[in-house]
Amino acid sequence: MKIIFVRYCMVCLLAIVAGASPGLNLKASEFRAFSLIRSPSSERSNLVSQSSVALKTDIQVVSSKMVQDAVSKLVAAWNSNGLSTIVTDSFIDKSRLLDSVNSQIPRDAQLRVLAIQNTRTLNQHVADSPSGKLLVSLVSTTLRTQLEFNDPAQGFQRREGTNEYILRIKQRYTP
């Protein structure tokens, strides 16, 4: 009964709108006009695509073994309270990070890597060193980690987290 009444009201409402006075000039054919979005000229787009391709093809992919080794060194430094030796001086707020680690994280905390989820080479350049040329790569990697520690009140604790790490990996340059 209720559904029939609602349908009847809708039909009446449509009839009223359709039979509105001729001065309203109601049209249901188009609500909004479409405008084409102009594309850049073919010469300009070719120049852009060629320059971006040239920049992207110069980056060599860093092997997963090298990323795993760098992550292992990071975890070993964390677990041995040697994080200050592995974090570069150009790291923003290095002293603040080290102070926070020393003051807010339990001394017996151990970091474990559960998974290396994503790795991407962000930037590369060739640098001179006394032993020859080095390929320096800036690599972004997403790690799923677990921090384990003993809490005096709550006992053994595990805290999982997923974080992005930016690693600077140096390897011998072979052109």
Q: Label the structural class.
A: alpha+beta
| Number of E-type strands | 3
Biggest beta sheet summary: 3 strands, antiparallel
| Distance between the amino and carboxyl termini | 82 Å
**SSE sequence, one letter per element:** HHHHHEEE
Shape: extended
DSSP helical segment count: 5
Helix content: 25-40%
Rg over CA atoms: 31 Å
Which strand order do you get reading across the main beta sheet? 1-2-3
Give the oligomer, counting copies of the same chain as homo and different chains as hetero: single chain
SSE arrangement:
Blueprint: H1 2-18, H2 42-57, H3 64-79, H4 83-86, H5 94-104, E1 110-129, E2 132-151, E3 155-172
Antiparallel strand pairs: 1-2, 2-3
Task: Provide an overview of this structure.
- The chain is of the alpha+beta class.
- The protein is 37% helix and 33% strand.
- The protein is built from five helices and three strands, in the order αααααβββ.
- The chain has helices at residues 2-18, 42-57, 64-79, 83-86, 94-104; strands at residues 110-129, 132-151, 155-172.
- The longest helix has 17 residues, at 2-18.
- The protein is extended, with a radius of gyration of 31 Å.
